Prior knowledge:
This protein is an alpha/beta fold. Helices cover 50% and strands 14% of the residues.
Amino acid sequence: MRILDPTISVVIPIHNEMEVLPEFLDKQLLPELDKIKNYKFEIIFVNDGSTDKSAEILMRYTEKSKRFKLISLSRNFGKEPALSAGLKYANGKAVLTIDADGQQPPSLIPKFISKWEAGAQIVTGVRDHFTKHGLVQKMGSKLFYWMLRRMGNRYTVPGSTDYRLIDRVVVDEFNKLSEHNRITRGLIDWLGFRQEHIEYTYGARIAGKPSYNLSKLFHLAIDSFISMSTTPLIIFGYIGVIITILSFLLGVFVIIQQYILGDPLGLYWNGAVQMAIFITFLIGLVLISQAISALYISHIHAETQGRPLYIIDKGKSKNL
Ligand code: UDP
Ligand code: MG
């Protein structure tokens, strides 16, 4: 068991959620938090450039009680930066991040807390199945995780969401990361530490529309690949190697078959065909050289991200 009566921060990113906020806060989140007696809660709203009345609604809560804090971003930066802002300003011994639209049921919070009390440093909500949205998004997200795993990203659990509880130790490490193009879940998974999962059913929105449409999700997926792995750059190099080898073999075949043996197969391959084989060979070389520069770029990329080389788990180290 951890020390009595610490504070847990609840970070909620909000972009144009005026239709759902009162219901989510008064009917779902706050009653649930009130039931938990061992902890105090500080609730951090991150207003991510809402253009509706969300800001006014949030203001009303902050006027009622000091436990509500409001971070207002100067414009819409996106959910990822909004979450990072919330984590930076959270004071709690642990931080829970949750969406404002009711899709992540607050009734699970006690479960998150008990896993954390039992020693998990990151407790991540994982969608039990891909219930949301249409077929395209479902397939898209399956494909996304399949590719992510293929690309050697071992850290991200399929279906993991931003509904999670993070221990202070992990939050502090997260806050040290300085890279700009960030995917919160990918980074938190990358940090390591003891992680546990809670399966849940992604509910329906209380009201309103998700701000993440297909094209935004697509960009998010691309960003995840690019910020968490350099494999896409290398794949084309392999394609280049295959093309070069095949066209080289074909070229050797033409020389032997046609010029040395005098075309016993009767193919009559003329200059145009030979030229095509030669050009394909050159294309292969170009792809390989591209992949080599890609390797240099990936090193520069890693440097500019400025991630620490390693992260020490102080809790498990001794006499440092
Ligand atoms: N959100 C945000 N900034 C954005 C888009 C979304 O802070 O630019 C918030 C939004 O208000 C909600 C959460 O992030 O609380 C999840 O957004 P949404 O429901 O649109 O995404 P989905 O449920 O499809 O993942
Ligand atoms: Mg949602």
